[in-house]
Amino acid sequence: MNRGMRALIPLAVFLVVVGFLFKGLFLNPKEVPSPLVGKPAPQFSLPRLDNPETVFSPKEMLGQVWMLNAWASWCPSCVEEHPILVSLAKTGLVPLIGLDYKDTQLEAQQWLEKGGNPYAVTVMDADGRVGIDYGVYGVPETYVIDKAGVIVYKQIGPVTVEALRDTIIPLVKKLQSQ
Hints:
The chain is of the alpha/beta class. The chain has one domain: Glutaredoxin (3-Layer(aba) Sandwich), CATH 3.40.30.10. Helix content is about 40%, strand content about 20%. It has five helices and seven strands. It has helices at about 5-25, 75-90, 105-115, 130-135, 160-175, and strands at about 45, 55, 65-70, 95-100, 120-125, 140-145, 150-155. The strands form two sheets. A five-stranded mixed beta sheet has the order 5-4-3-6-7. Strands 1-2 form a two-stranded antiparallel sheet. Helix 2 links the parallel strand 3 (about 65-70) and strand 4 (about 95-100). The longest helix is centred in the N-terminal third of the chain and has 22 residues, at about 5-25. It is elongated and about 75 Å long.
């Protein structure tokens, strides 16, 4: 290989790297595919926020479509989605289970008292281990789980009116009819 060709190799490598970086600028970070979609929801047994002496497990939800929402009182984006979840809960369309992520019981209870409680049940994931099992990148994150306990959808970031209208509600209704 002559000297001129060898000089082009670093340039070619540089251009390939720049191309990948440029392509990454146009990717939506909220569209990160979850490896758990299509797989059984991780099982857990966590204390309930309203009564820590009792525990909740996803096994209690078998046979029904439900949603798991990972949230925290310290999360600014959770404030943004909270009224939307309260409105969804009022419809009675689907049970919403709250996973209070890396929070204290008192702060979580105060937050729900202030903003309203959309959750049928809220469990405390104080050390974040269950969140890790579910692949939580950061709160809020919401999962739609089918009657067999399989995760069928993951919403990264706040649930929006558009996400509910265009994706989540149609999916829930379809799953409930099966």
